[in-house]
Amino acid sequence: MDAKSVNLSKEFVNKISPDGKKLKLPINGVKKIIAISSAKGGVGKSTIAVNLAIALKKLNYNVGILDADIYGPSVPQMLGIHEKPKSEDGKNLFPIIQYGIQCMSIGFLVDQDTAMIWRGPMVISAIKTFTTNVLWKDVDYLIIDLPPGTGDALLTFAQEIQIDGIVVISTPQEVALLDANRGIKMFQKMNVNIIGIIENMSSFVSDDGKEHFLFGKNGAENLSKNLNLNLLGKIPIEIKIREGADTGKPYIEFFSDNETSNEIMNIAKRITEKVK
Ligand code: ADP
Asked: Fewer CB within 10 Å, N side or C side of the chain?
């Protein structure tokens, strides 16, 4: 299928409830929706989305992951998925099961080069159509890997899909924090629930045990304090996290009982507590 086959009809985009308000779209087969967002690209949003999805599965939940990062869909690669999803009716798609979680990526359907030249509303329309045409089965938590940025279109999406909460990923670096701050304020203005912030790449521990703060220290922690938001946790730079992402072997599936894996599991637990 190519971009053209994604139905861009506005039929549900403009659904209005009897009281005149726009209806929020639920996603069939899904109980809770958690969207992972970052104002900047390259801060580890997709890597964390994948690891959190697996962490939630390890906590015995039924988990789905929806890769809606239309400009750089990387979840299939990070999960080692090489097949395309199947459809019985040419419209609804069966998610692909990998590591015990259900996965769907917009990258399976929409050509990235085409998407690059789409205007915001088209992108969002495509994501929404795609989001509602997946045959999720008994999913307790659906993790959505959102496109990076803070544009209007992304906010519209966050408002129109029944998202239970947004998790914001930032590195401790000043430029990333400035963008994260702006993104959070926009979400807040639109009354989207922000579950908290995760500081990724918070530090790097070298072989001699020394901790290096390559991108600055406690940046996201300070941001969360200033904005009165939860800091859900800090994930260090680990070569194994990067290797796992590149080779389709998510870190948290293969490592346990070390500081980093415990932190990822704790972040997943904290998220479930916040969206009960
Ligand atoms: P984004 O989705 O924000 O664009 P990615 O998840 O693609 O970012 O991550 C960007 C790069 O950083 C990838 O190569 C990924 O493997 C790497 N990466 C992300 N988080 C970590 C981490 N905590 N430690 C080491 N490498 C990481």
From this structure: C
Per-residue pLDDT band at 97 (split at 50, 70, 90): very high
Q: What is the mean pLDDT of residues 147-169?
A: 80
Which residue has a Cα nearest atom 17 of ligand 1? 242
Instruction: Give domain 27-274's CATH architecture.
Output: 3-Layer(aba) Sandwich (3.40)
- 69 Cα nearest atom in ligand 1: 2
Identity of the amino acid at 78: M
Q: 42 C-alpha vs ligand 1 centroid, how far in Å?
A: 6
Supply the Cα-derived Rg of the chain in whole angstroms: 18
Report how far residue 74's alpha carbon sits from residue 96's, in angstroms, rounded to the nearest whole number.
Answer: 15
Residue 152 CA to residue 123 CA, distance in Å, equals 11
Report the nearest-CA residue for atom 22 of ligand 1. 237
Which of helix, strand or coil describes residue 157?
Answer: helix
Report which ligand 1 atom has the smallest distance to the Cα of 200: 23
Contact, 98 vs 120, CB < 8 A?
no
Residues in contact with ligand 1 (CB, 6 Å cut-off): 38, 41-47, 74, 200-201, 235, 237-238, 241-242, 245
Express each pLDDT in 21-80 by its tens digit: 556 777 899 999 999 999 888 999 999 999 999 999 999 999 999 998 888 899 999 999
Q: How far is the CA of 239 from the centre of ligand 1 (A)?
A: 10
pLDDT tens across 14-23, in order? 455 555 555 6
